[in-house]
Design brief:
alpha+beta; globular; 14% strand; Zincin-like; 6 strands
Length: 190
């Protein structure tokens, strides 16, 4: 005999999400690599159809699929941990993508004993860390890119908030560490 599925209400899921965020927080605060910001907000959305979770880096927010987690609340802990790992990397100044550093952090989830949905939560892509970090001069949001840009980019968040195009600049710390810029390499080829 099959057990009927329990469909959680949004308020129940919000409480569960907060519980798991607080439970996992010690794994992301005061680490050698850095810390996540503890004032992270979590929201559930019916609009999320193609993803179960999303770390909104610039807004320090975790957005989750209400429809998916109402039917599959047992997988909420993994997604909370996964999105916290993205935010932690971003707040610590690292590329927040699915890099080796990200997967190393995700190995810690195995210690929790909570479930993983192998059909949804298993990533196989490994992204190289972005070597070039561009920073918004107004709000300090960061973009980690694989190649140096030959054009300007502006911060869409600042534009949305203030209606002003604040252009990002290449981080000078990283620029000193890179041996040759894209322009230097292009000059050598010319």
């Amino acid at each position: 005999m099959r057990t009927p599925a329990i469909n959680f209400e949004k308020e129940d899921l919000e409480l569960l999400a907060e519980y798991f965020f607080e439970l996992f927080l010690p794994r992301f605060v005061g680490q050698d690599e850095g810390s996540i910001r503890t004032a992270t907000s979590i929201e559930f959305s019916r609009k999320m159809r193609n993803k179960v979770g999303l770390a909104v880096l610039f807004e320090n927010k975790i957005r989750l699929s209400l429809t998916y987690f109402q039917a599959n609340p047992q997988f909420l802990p993994y997604t909370i941990f996964h999105e916290m790992a993205h935010l932690w990397l971003y707040h610590s100044g690292f590329d927040p993508g699915h890099t080796k550093r990200f997967y190393k952090k995700m190995l810690e989830f195995e210690d929790t004993g909570y479930l993983i949905d192998p059909e949804v939560h298993v990533h196989t892509r490994l992204a190289a860390e972005g070597r070039y970090v561009y920073i918004c001069n107004n709000c300090e949001n960061r973009w980690h890119l694989k190649e140096e840009l030959d054009h300007n980019i502006y911060c869409a968040l600042c534009y949305k908030r203030e209606g002003v195009e604040y252009y990002a600049t290449l981080s000078s710390d990283l620029a000193r560490r890179t041996t040759k810029s894209r322009r230097e390499r292009q000059d050598e080829c010319a």
